[in-house]
Amino acid sequence: MNPFQRVTLVYTHCLLGSIWLKPMFVFSPLAVVSCNSVEKKIYVNLNYTVSCVRLLNATHQIGCQSSLSGNVGVLHVLESEENLDWVLHSGPNPPYMVILESPLFTRSIMMKLKNGSSRVAGVAVVAPNTNPAAGFSPHTKCPNENTGVYSVKYDPAMAHCNKTLWNPLGNGLSYEEFDFPIFSLKDDNETQVIRQCYLDHNRAMNGSSLQYPLCAMQLYSHMSAVTDTATCMRRNDINFSINPEIVCDALGDYNVWASTRPLNNTAKGHKMWESVVILDSRSFFFDIAPGAESGVSGFVTLLAAAHALRNATQEAQPNRTILYTFFQGETFDYIGSSRMVYDMENKQFALDLDNVHSVLEIGQVGLRADSRLWLHSDPVSRRNNSVNEEVKGLIAKLHSAATGLSVSVQEPSFSQPLPPSSFQRFLRARPIPGIVIEDHQSAFTNRFYESMYDNAEYLNVSYPPNLSPEEQLEFVTDTAKFILFSTVSRGHLDTDTDVSSCFVFSAISQVTQMLYSFLVQSNNSWFQQLIPSDLKSHLTNRPPNYYVGVAQQSSEPTLLVQHLLANLTGRTVNITQENCQNQREDENDKESKHMYSYMWVQGVAPPNGTEREGYCIRSTVRLSKALSPAFDLRQYTSDDYSTWTESRWKSIKGRIFLVASHELEMLTLGVGVGVLLTSLLLTYIISSKADILFSSGREPTNATY
Description:
Layout: H1 3-21, H2 29-42, E1 44-46, E2 49-51, E3 55-56, E4 61-62, E5 71-78, H3 84-90, E6 96-101, H4 107-115, E7 120-126, E8 182-185, H5 188-201, E9 214-220, H6 229-236, E10 248-250, E11 252-259, E12 276-281, H7 292-315, E13 321-326, H8 335-345, E14 356-362, E15 372-376, H9 385-402, E16 408-410, H10 423-429, E17 434-438, H11 469-474, H12 478-482, H13 486-492, H14 508-519, H15 525-530, H16 556-569, E18 571-573, H17 577-581, H18 592-595, E19 597-601, E20 615-619, E21 622-627, H19 629-632, E22 645-647, E23 653-659, H20 662-688, H21 690-693
Parallel strand pairs: 5-6, 6-7, 7-8, 12-13, 12-14, 14-17, 15-16
Antiparallel strand pairs: 1-23, 2-8, 3-4, 3-22, 5-9, 9-23, 10-22, 11-13, 11-21, 15-17, 18-20, 19-20
Helix pairs in contact: 1-2, 1-20, 7-14, 7-16, 8-10, 9-13
């Protein structure tokens, strides 16, 4: 007998045993333990999966979900698009749980499955070990189309990507709504078990019909929120119990920022005589996208620039303060940058927009095969003469900084709007001089924008075989050599003395370590020494998860960037751990906390011991809220701000098992009902005849002893 069949019979027996016990009001812990043990033998749980979840905004919902009890379907491994007819029409055992190899995870196939969803229980996509040759981007062709600066009111000719289609490979799959669950299978061993189960039980051989039992899969990913953000937030406000149910949460996190000159963070609003240059990086984060080119390349470059400028700006302060900013949630309608602009406008930030002189943004800069970077500017704001002159000055400085380097900088050869960038949110508030540095002149060179393939391999961060993790951490890759920051640092030191001439390249070892930590695994000796001991659990043997998440706590990338920026731009101060954690230089210090932040980090582990020598870092690094103003204003249908929310769920899990034929299920049900009725009848008969059946041994009532 097949072992799966044998388990099915035992499971049936366990259920019948439970039915038999119920009329007798008997509870046996051993029976429960036995049933749980049998359950483990029936199901193979899938432990390494990532589910598509439901997101909502002002107008609609996107993503996926299962029914409340999970979706169950017979496994079918799709071998080609032509094989879809079996799933959608001719297969005799619907609904089907479709297993897709990554080359078949296309918009064409997914939309056909969506339209035939009555026969589709769910989809499981096998994550590849190597990137495909063809491009794949599940984002839209015009990212953040409706929340940037280019509206019909700003300039009709440039609205809706009319002049430049930035992401031509975008298929919009991430913005579709599916009424069945979609999982990504990440583990090769589990994938092999699924394939083998399919081959053993579900694949017809030589034209023969399928024989039961069949291999099936069950996926749980039921989402609580429906319709749109306004609906789910209204449901959040309904309080009919002591513990009201929350069905969705606003997307959000924290922005990370620091300045070359200490700013009083307690006194909000305008700072007299203060003029800042905002140097920022975008982070287009999504749940299963590593974001190597679309996010990591930019903020690693900015971190390297900040480190190079630490000594330079302290030796000779530039005429303007440089403000380093790392915005979160930008892929979801510019959550981080729109919040900072809102706070500046409403005197809730350390500076206001009047203090902002110019903006220089580092975007996607990791794929410059021709050693060329492009300087994008806004043609509409440059119609203002003063803005145009400032932009020309920025471009001239960047050209000067690139002289003699292996990388060149150029302006696009034609007039076009800015690419998707945080700078657009500043331009929505007022005309501000600014440049966006990218590795593309027009359309993205990134063929895997916001996809699972935008990873270390695509950015050419690879290592020779047989290197240990610590050796990989120190190995200088070609990409590390490409991450140059002098084009940024020299172009922004507005001072009579060229204090940046000693910093043509960043410390190559630190760029190497950053790329390894953000793209390969964060749990390494370098990161361990730069964080407090209570954040050790955030370090894992994989890249950080770059999905923005919900506005409940700081995400892993935010915490890592915060502490790394503090170490790269701050100074070690000789104070006690208690004073450091209390944000002061000594017991009498009441002022420093307004100008600086203090962090006690673990330090280096000694070669022959485990006791680390911690120390205190004083820096200007701060966190500010990256939550869309729409949620503070309760404008859940806003056209001006992001309204994205994420649905809550009870559990996300998957498992495979063997399923019996419908006839056997009906037979089992009939036998169970028969046993139940028989037990009820016997219980009634025994109870009604109890005086007769149990009277022979009864003693007389007047017996005495």
